[in-house]
Amino acid sequence: MYVDLVIYTGRAEHAFGDLSKRHEIFDIYLKPQHGSIAIEKLDELFLPNEDTEDPRKILIVGRPGIGKSLLCEKMARDWSKGDLLRDSNKSFQHLFFVPIQMLLTTCRPNVEQSVAGLKFDRKVEIMGFTPEKVQEYVKKFCADPKTVNRIWGHISNNLELLSLCYIPVNSFIVCSLLEELIKLHEKERQVLYQQLQQKSMKEL
Q1: Whether this model's pTM surpasses 0.85
Q2: DSSP 3-state assignment of 116?
Q3: Whose CA, among 21, 78, 107, 177, lies 20 to 30 Å from 160?
Q4: What is the C-alpha to C-alpha distance for residues 57 and 144, in angstroms, rounded to an integer?
Q5: Would you call 183 exposed, middle or buried from its count of C-beta atoms within 10 A (0-12, 13-18, 19+)?
Q6: What are the residue ranges of helices labelled H in 103-167?
Q7: CB 133 within 8 Å of CB 3
């Protein structure tokens, strides 16, 4: 994981289909909602807070590619290494969640009603990258500072690209494509320079 994903208790509503409201992804959607509780460490997901005293059945909501599966994989790895809930009296007895222990479920926002019949102790949502975290992702994606500046320049000056990049997997796709385009452009410039040089030598 390149950067920490911020998880908030409570849902943030947003009409993603309306392209004219893309700016609201950062202006409204990614800002903490009233009554939400920021969770900065994975352990906090399973510990008591203002919303519940004993979170055993947890629903993680998030848009496609936002990192729900990756989050669960990370928790499984941390648990296997003894790094998850190390300082707590809570623990997972098995990696699969039996009814009397803990249940961790993920779903997309548009199908949340499909699990409406289940009672969860806590509902959280992975909100995605803010513009600052998109920029941090770009910096860690590329080793070359010049390429970083060019990629971030393209993303930050294009609201369509920036609004796509709040989903981590989209950040990877956009950065990969832009990096390839930059390399291709540089290669074409080098070929053109060589051709001009060869032509100039012939003329001499």
Answers
A1: no
A2: coil
A3: 107
A4: 44
A5: exposed
A6: 131-141, 145-156, 159-164
A7: yes
**Strands of the chain, DSSP E:** 7-9, 38-39, 57-61, 103-107, 122-126
**Rounded to whole angstroms, how far apart are CA atoms 62 and 12?**
11
- Tens digit of each residue's pLDDT, the chain (204 residues): 444 555 666 555 555 555 556 666 666 666 666 667 777 778 888 888 877 888 888 888 888 888 888 888 888 888 788 777 766 666 555 555 744 456 677 777 777 777 777 788 888 888 788 889 899 999 999 989 999 999 999 999 988 889 889 888 899 999 999 999 888 888 887 777 677 667 666 655
Enter the tokens of residue 6: 């911020």
Quote the tokens at residue 141: 């994606």
Q: Which of 46, 9, 12 is nearest to 124 (CA)?
A: 9
Backbone angles phi, psi at 34, to 5 degrees: -60, 130
